[in-house]
Structures are given as C-alpha cells and as structure tokens.
Amino acid sequence: MTMKMTLTVRPRRRPPTSRRPSFGQQEKPVVPPPSTLDTLDLKLLQALELDGRAPFSRIAQVLDVSDQTVARRFRRLRTTANLRITGVVDDSRLGRSTWIVRMGCAHKAAGRLAATLAARPDTHYVDLAAGGTEVICAITPRSRPERDDLLLERLQRTPHVTSVDAHCVLRPYYGNSLRWLRKISALAPDEESALRTPAPAPTAEPAAPDGTDRAVLEALRRDGRATLTELQSATGLSETAVKKRLERLRGTGVLHLAVEYDHEPLGQGVEALIWLTVAPHALAKTGQTVAGHPAVRFAAAVTGRANLALSVLCRTTDELYTFLSETIGAVPDVHTAETVLTLRRVKTLTTEHP
Fold first, then answer.
1. Quick one: DSSP state of residue 6?
2. By the 8 A CB rule, do 303 and 170 touch?
3. Residues 351, 352, 354: CA angle, nearest 5 degrees
4. Would you tell me which of 79, 107, 245, 333 could form a disulfide with 282, CB atoms 3.0–4.6 Å apart?
5. Tens of pLDDT along 178-223?
6. Are 103 and 325 a contacting pair, CB within 8 Å?
7. Is 305 exposed, middle or buried (0-12, 13-18, 19+ CB in 10 A)?
8. pTM of the prediction?
9. Backbone angles phi and psi of 67, in degrees to 5
10. How far apart are CA 96 and CA 117, in angstroms?
C-alpha cells in the first residue's frame, strides 16, 4: 500500500469573525509533556539544542536544579529517548550543495538500496517511504565528479530503481543548525537567553578545514560532548590549542552540535515530507512563513516541479491532515502539495555504518 497523498490546495478566505490565529502568528508548542518525559526533561533537551556542549553545571544553574539532577536526567534520556549529541559539519560553509533525492524502487529492492546509501559518508538521512517502494535521502557530494557519478551513473544503473528525482537545496529557511527542539518552548525566555550561544559570523568565502580540523570534527561526530582531553588524544594538540580550534569551528559555523533523539517519547509519532508548488514571486515569503510553524523541522526552496520542501513532525495523522488542510491550505500562492509519510529512518546523523 502506498502512503502518498497529493493535495491540490486552493487558498480560501476565513470569515472576519474567525478567532483562529493567523498563520504568521506565534503558536503554542505542539509538544505536551508525555508520560515518559516531564517538564524538566523537555527543558534539558531544549537547553542541549541551544548548546550541545554546555556543562551540566551551567544548565543546572539556569534551571535551578543540582548538577547531579541534570547528569541523571541526561543519562535517563539516553535510554528513554535514545538521546545523543553529535558534531555536524555545515556543508554550505564549505561551498557544497545538498541534494534531496527520491528513488522509486521495485518491490523488496528499497531496503537494499537504503542500506547502500546509508553506508556512504556523504548521506545525512536515508528514509524508507511510500509503502516501502520509495527511498528518500539527503546527500552532500564532496565534489562535482562525485555528484555526477552518483546522480548520472550509479543510481541510473542500479537494478530495480524505477525513477530518480533529484532536488538541489537552493535556500534553507529552517534546518541545519536551527532544529525542531528550539520550537518546543520548554524554556522560559530568560532561561533560553542564558543558554543560547552566539550566532555564527557570516562569511563570504567557503571555509577550508585542515587535517587537524578534520580530526576534531571526526571526534565530535562520534560524540559531540567529547572532552578536551579526548580531543587532545585525537589531535595531539595541547588543551589550549584544541579549545581554540573548537571555538573557531563553532564561531565560523562550520561546526554545530545536533541533538538526535527518538520522536515517539516526545509524542511525535508521524513524520512526513511535503512538497509544495508555490508561485515563484511568493517563494521567499511562503518559505519563511511556513518555516516558523511549530510542526516544521526543515523548510527549503529546491529545484524541481515542486519548489518548496518541508519536513514535519506531528502527533497523529489527523494532526497532519489539519496541518495540510487548514495551515497549508490557508497560505496564498500555494498551488499543490504532495505528502509522503516516512515509514522508517534507516540512517540519521549519528548512525554508525561500516
């Protein structure tokens, strides 16, 4: 069975008396504290999202609890929500482009293709979707020859692949270092301000990490909270030199810390990728507006017939329906929407592969 919906959306007017908040207004968080996670758990998750390397003592001080409580909650979340912190390279800072690739497959071939793509070091996410007959991955080829080899040669020759649709990410509106946990509003404004790290400085030229930088990045990919001593062992540098490297990589935006976790304990059981066709003159405004919705964890302008791609998290399929019919349906200049449910994530940022 194919879990794919294609929805033609026509903007509709709301009666003047409607009390429903407009799409651009700030909405309440979509995450209620579920039975396995309480308010302090959610505060800790959002604190780590703001600074994945924040010392437990600093988090404890802001949240007005003990260091031991924060450490204990962190360990528990690693079990209950499969929490992990990983260092992620922002490839756009290195002058690389990211592609979202959709591949249609014959029956039973999708699993093998997903496993093959997951083993590649340049894939970020690999999902099985559409009843198990479609593989969707986000990939950042390291060079133009690698891109051409994958998209023009390897995938086209792969047995049982029936279609390949590649979308280049042109302009992210939400994603990369801005991630979904920032939207759960668990922290009070003063707590969030105390834990937030400075935004990376803008840069006109792509960064060029050297061999030592790459050693630091690889160590943090395995564990985003690796200690300075562990980074010293990985690089052979002094603690002061390692600290300066780490600060520079984060300050230039080449490195950001990602919080990976299972969504079900947070009450978010439905993941979907939505492809919108938007009038070109309204693409930027629509992308920026949609990106602010609490359910949206990724939004970007892309190439292809659909020019705006969204990744959303919802509690139920009914909530997803409401998002499509009432939220997306109320946005002017959206002509069509195609929705594909994610059945299983084969690779995440932190998945280890041989």
1. E
2. yes
3. 140
4. 333
5. 788 888 889 999 999 999 988 887 776 778 889 999 999 999 999 9
6. no
7. exposed
8. 0.82
9. -60, -40
10. 19
